[in-house]
């Protein structure tokens, strides 16, 4: 049974209900576009009606128990019996700019993997450059390289989007190319920045 067949409440009913009970401040979407943009990531995608309390836990087919998410965010959403958790999760990822959420999540993934931010990597390369370039040359290189990298990444079968690891990999490939362009060995960057960080699981569990 499809999502459309199993849920009778319309998307319009869901939006109309939550406009009255949730402030759009801090969300990734304005209520004026809540029928077409995902409430978590803010991207314009086909939206699915997602249960706040899952049907398996007794959640009902009614506006107050449904939100609108893209397929990707729907799969990541919480499946718990506490109705506050869904809104905590949606608001926890509130993002002020449309169509930049997954790019930012890719930056977060990059930092987790390489123990430094993408911004810090760019600054390190510029500060240690042997091949001096002006700002216009650097900007032109980065823009052209980003376009080329779009042909060097792909999606998993059955997905129509880059996952966060692919975004992070793309940024790493850009840093490697930029380092070579500027005459900087980025292995030194990894050594210096890596010394400043505990393993990700220690940070997450104990800090």
Walk me through the structure:
With about 210 residues, this protein is mainly alpha-helical. The chain folds into 2 domains: about 5-90, Orthogonal Bundle (DNA Binding (I), subunit A), CATH 1.10.30; about 100-205, no CATH class. It is about 50% helix and about 5% strand. The chain contains 10 helices and 2 strands; from the N terminus they run ααββαααααααα. It has a two-stranded antiparallel sheet. It is elongated, with a radius of gyration of 21 Å. The relative contact order is 0.11.
Give the count of structural domains. Answer: 2
Would you tell me the overall average pLDDT?
A: 90
Strand content: under 5%
* Total strand segments: 2
The largest sheet has its strands arranged as 1-2
- The multimeric state of the shown protein is single chain
- Uncertain regions spanning at least 5 consecutive residues: none
End-to-end gap: 44 Å
The amount of helix comes to 40-55%
What is the count of helical runs? Answer: 10
Indicate the overall shape. Answer: elongated
Rg, alpha carbons: 21 Å
């Amino acid at each position: 049974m499809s999502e459309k067949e199993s849920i009778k409440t319309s998307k319009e009913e869901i939006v109309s209900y939550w406009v009255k009970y949730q402030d759009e401040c801090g969300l990734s979407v304005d209520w004026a576009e809540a029928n077409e943009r995902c409430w978590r990531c803010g991207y314009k995608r086909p939206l699915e009606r997602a249960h706040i309390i899952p049907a398996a836990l007794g959640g009902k087919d009614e506006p107050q128990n449904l939100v609108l998410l893209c397929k990707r965010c729907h799969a990541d959403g919480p499946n718990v019996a506490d109705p506050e958790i869904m809104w905590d999760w949606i608001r926890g990822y509130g993002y002020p700019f449309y169509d930049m959420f997954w790019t930012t999540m890719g930056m977060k993934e990059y930092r987790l993997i390489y123990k430094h931010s993408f911004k810090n990597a760019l600054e390190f390369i510029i500060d240690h450059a042997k091949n001096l370039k002006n700002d216009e040359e650097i900007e032109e290189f980065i823009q052209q390289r980003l376009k080329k990298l779009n042909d060097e990444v792909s999606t998993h079968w059955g997905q129509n989007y880059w996952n966060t690891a692919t975004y992070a990999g793309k940024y790493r490939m850009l840093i490697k190319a930029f380092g070579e362009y500027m005459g900087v060995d980025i292995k030194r960057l990894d050594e210096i920045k890596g010394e400043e960080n505990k393993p990700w699981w220690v940070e997450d569990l104990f800090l």
